[in-house]
Amino acid sequence: MYSLYLDSANMELNVGLVKDNQLIDFIYYLANKKQSELMVVEIHNLLKRNNIDIKSLKEIVVTIGPGSYTGIRIALTIAKTLAFSLSIPLYSISTLLSQKIKGVKTISLINARSNRSYLAIYDEDNKTIIKDTIWTNEEVKDWINKNPDYVLSGDTSYLNLEGKQPNVLLGMLEARKNIKQSEDIFLLKPIYLKDLI
Predict the structure, then answer these.
(1) Is 93 a residue whose pLDDT tops 60?
(2) Contact (CB, 8 A) for 94 and 67
(3) 55: domain CATH number?
(4) Which of 64, 142, 173, 192 lies at a CB distance of 3.0 to 4.6 Å from 92, suitable for a disulfide?
(5) Both 133 and 173 in a single domain?
(6) What's the predicted TM-score (pTM) here?
(7) 195 pLDDT tier (thresholds 50, 70, 90)
(8) Short-list 160, 140, 137, 158, CA closest to 150
(9) Mean pLDDT of 47-59
(10) pLDDT at residue number 50
(11) How many domains does the chain have?
């Protein structure tokens, strides 16, 4: 069974092809706000180089934020359109969960700008300690200082801290095991979080 994995919630463009729960090919690069121009082209390129007809896809998996307001909507719109037109299931995954480091306590971070961070915290068994939220950078650093046994995940350079750069597609693949199908793709909404402040 072939599945298509899509993510454009941050600066990167991620398109993955999964067969029988194994990532068999992918396209990843910094897209610098050009995901809307490039994602459909890269989906086509990925399918073509693997000799896969788009009608062979049996499901779509997409990140739904938090992250870039526009970036989230790009992958989600494409995923919804494909799932609807192909009449296949759609699965949505938190961008922060897609950055979880397997088997270790993880603080997953994304720059929310204006001295804020999107954050989720997980234990080594993938149990959510703190679900997707938004904190000030000072609150984040304070929590990190009090919990040094957690690994930082994501681009943490904006905090002047060193973090691991996970493969988002592999993170999505791991998270997909425990995610239920979206019942109504038309009601599926992005996770923005900025309205929490």
Answers:
(1) yes
(2) no
(3) 3.30.420.40
(4) 64
(5) no
(6) 0.95
(7) low
(8) 140
(9) 98
(10) 98
(11) 2
Phi, psi of 124 (to 5 degrees): -65, -20
CA 147-67-195 angle, to 5 degrees, is 90
Using CB atoms within 10 Å of the CB of residue 153, give its burial: 0 to 12 exposed, 13 to 18 middle, 19+ buried. Answer: buried
Residue 10 — φ and ψ, nearest 5°? -125, -145
What residues make up the domain containing 116?
A: 101-159
Can you give the CATH number for the domain in which 146 is found?
3.30.420.200
Question: pLDDT tens digit string along 103-162?
Answer: 999 999 999 999 999 999 999 998 999 999 999 999 999 999 999 999 999 999 999 999
pLDDT given for residue 120 in this prediction? 98
Model confidence band, residue 45 (pLDDT cutoffs 50, 70, 90): very high
| 89 and 139 co-located in one domain | no
Q: Estimate the crossing angle of helix 35-49 against helix 69-86, to 10 degrees.
A: 40
- Same domain assignment for residues 36 and 89: yes
Do 76 and 134 lie in one domain? The reply is no
DSSP per position, 5-27: EEE-SSSEEEEEEEETTEEEEEE
Helix (H, G, I), strand (E, B) or coil at 2: strand
Name the amino acid, one letter, at 68. S
Cβ burial of 188 (10 Å; 0-12, 13-18, 19+) is middle
pLDDT at 9 over 50: yes
Q: Which residue has the tokens 């954050």?
A: 119
